[in-house]
């Protein structure tokens, strides 16, 4: 029971410090700590569906969060480039909330490398082909989706990408 009390105290402290304590870069890292559990919980909840027979050879419900987080990270980069053009104070808030809370916290926990490696290890113990297929599909589809999203914005967006 003491660990529950410690977790609650730390949670409250991180949220209070993130929103009331600082208005700078360290605060964005505290926001990442605040939003990371939500990404991890969503990933864990989705991974429960990998026990279905259709996911035996390809863990789709851990593949989906990886690709979705990659696509959402690209979208956040586009938002950051537009906000950067608007004003310095707006970009500072984007760095805190957009990059700190959403990209590093939520999306970073949604697409963890450790779970991806664990899936690859589990698949390779059954059949090496399944592991290669899952690993290559994850990397290639995420890269293609990222190139598509950023390329479409670069070609048809109103402002150039920065960073």
TrEMBL record:
Signal peptide: 1-18
Gene Ontology terms: cellular component: plasma membrane
Residue spans crossing the bilayer: 28-46, 58-84, 96-118, 130-153
Catalytic activity entry: fluoride(in) = fluoride(out)
Summary of the function given for this chain in its UniProt record: Fluoride channel required for the rapid expulsion of cytoplasmic fluoride.
PANTHER family assigned: FLUORIDE EXPORT PROTEIN 1-RELATED
Protein name: Fluoride ion transporter CrcB
Source organism of this protein record: Phytophthora ramorum (Sudden oak death agent)
Lineage: Eukaryota, Sar, Stramenopiles, Oomycota, Peronosporomycetes
